[in-house]
């Protein structure tokens, strides 16, 4: 009893703080830290410590394996978390957590893969009844049970779990196919594999449990993240145009909600500010110029709010 008390007393007090879980390592870690910094969360994580108190908000960051975050949030041990959609589905917690928003990073595909040299395997159906190796047992069993048209306990496909280096299973003779995450596809191709089916398109997700202790604070975090995501997606485009050509210019660049229009000292002319998607920027500038816009400027957006 004394030992337990000592261990507990060495941990920071989080009783009055919202617990916010982020991956402690892996493919989402660096981007999560960048996001936390961007939304103004200030903290100092001590070496080998998995809990860090935020200095400017009543939040405690909890660094957990990404594979565990959805389960902790679903059970109410954690208030808010960032993890992959694939983890939520694999842990079967879709109905026990609330998805606040998708974050746009960590995008990849959970795919069925087979040796490229085997020309007889061109779809997942060709692997029915064969040996499949994966770290996504639940999603894989569900997929192949659907292909067989039977319940999971009656399926003939053999699904085995391995925790890492899944792509090596076929080459080592352990499997006829695998199910694994694919981002660029370089690792898959290097192992002599090719994708024959996609089970899930996944990305990072901000989730909360169904009965959060700090709903207002969770909403603040969501609003801040939305602002950063908008800033990363859009730029602010400003231009001058004759008022009689304004309607055409607004059709070219309608903005997120509507352009901001201000009269100029020169009669019949207006100044316009409008948010434009970065990926459409050059085409939009070309079309604005064709519509009669002049003095077209583009400004980066550091942050935004709806």
Quick rundown:
With 306 residues, this protein is an alpha/beta fold. It is built from 9 helices and 15 strands. The protein has helices at 2-9, 29-38, 66-75, 85-90, 137-148, 186-190, 215-233, 246-252, 281-291, and strands at residues 18-23, 51-53, 59-64, 80-84, 97-102, 108-115, 131-134, 158-161, 177-182, 193-202, 204-209, 234-242, 260-263, 269-277, 294-300.
Structure notes:
- It is a single chain.
- The radius of gyration is 25 Å and the shape is globular.
- It is built from nine helices and 15 strands.
- Mean pLDDT is 91; it is low at 1-9.
- The chain is α/β, with parallel strands linked by helices and 306 residues long.
- The protein has helices at residues 2-9, 29-38, 66-75, 85-90, 137-148, 186-190, 215-233, 246-252, 281-291, and strands at residues 18-23, 51-53, 59-64, 80-84, 97-102, 108-115, 131-134, 158-161, 177-182, 193-202, 204-209, 234-242, 260-263, 269-277, 294-300.
- A hairpin with a 5-residue loop joins strand 13 (260-263) and strand 14 (269-277).
- The strands form three sheets. It has a six-stranded mixed sheet with strand order 2-3-1-4-11-5, sandwiched between helices. A five-stranded mixed sheet has the order 8-7-9-6-10. Strands 13-14-12-15 form a four-stranded antiparallel sheet.
Q: What attributes does this structure have?
A:
single chain, five-stranded mixed sheet, 29% helix
Map the helices and strands.
Blueprint: H1 2-9, E1 18-23, H2 29-38, E2 51-53, E3 59-64, H3 66-75, E4 80-84, H4 85-90, E5 97-102, E6 108-115, E7 131-134, H5 137-148, E8 158-161, E9 177-182, H6 186-190, E10 193-202, E11 204-209, H7 215-233, E12 234-242, H8 246-252, E13 260-263, E14 269-277, H9 281-291, E15 294-300
Parallel strand pairs: 1-3, 1-4, 7-8, 7-9
Antiparallel strand pairs: 2-3, 4-11, 5-11, 6-9, 6-10, 12-14, 12-15, 13-14
């Amino acid at each position: 009893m004394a030992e337990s008390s000592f261990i507990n007393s060495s941990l920071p007090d989080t009783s009055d703080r919202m617990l916010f879980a982020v991956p402690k390592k892996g493919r989402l870690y660096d981007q999560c830290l960048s996001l936390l910094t961007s939304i103004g969360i200030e903290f100092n994580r001590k070496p080998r410590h998995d809990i860090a108190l935020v200095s400017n908000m009543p939040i405690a960051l909890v660094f957990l394996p990404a594979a565990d975050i959805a389960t902790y949030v679903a059970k109410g041990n954690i208030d808010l978390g960032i993890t992959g959609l694939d983890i939520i589905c694999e842990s079967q917690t879709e109905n026990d957590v609330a998805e606040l928003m998708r974050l746009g990073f960590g995008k990849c595909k959970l795919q069925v893969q087979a040796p490229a040299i085997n020309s007889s395997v061109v779809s997942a159906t060709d692997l029915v009844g064969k040996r499949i190796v994966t770290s996504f047992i639940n999603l894989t069993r569900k997929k192949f049970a659907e292909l067989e048209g039977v319940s999971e306990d009656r399926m003939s496909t053999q699904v085995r779990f391995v925790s890492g280096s899944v792509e090596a299973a076929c080459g080592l003779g352990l499997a006829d196919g695998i199910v694994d995450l694919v981002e660029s596809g370089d690792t898959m191709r290097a192992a002599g594999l090719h994708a024959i089916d996609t089970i899930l398109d996944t990305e990072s997700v901000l989730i909360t449990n169904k009965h959060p202790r700090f709903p207002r604070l969770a909403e603040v975090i969501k609003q801040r993240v939305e602002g950063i995501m908008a800033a990363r997606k859009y730029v602010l485009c400003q231009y001058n145009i004759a008022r009689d050509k304004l309607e055409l210019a607004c059709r070219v660049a309608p903005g997120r909600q509507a352009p901001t229009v201000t009269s100029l000292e020169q009669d019949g002319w207006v100044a316009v500010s409008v948010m434009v998607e970065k990926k459409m920027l050059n085409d939009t500038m070309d079309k604005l110029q064709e519509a009669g816009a002049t003095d077209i400027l583009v400004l980066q957006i550091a942050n935004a709010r709806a």
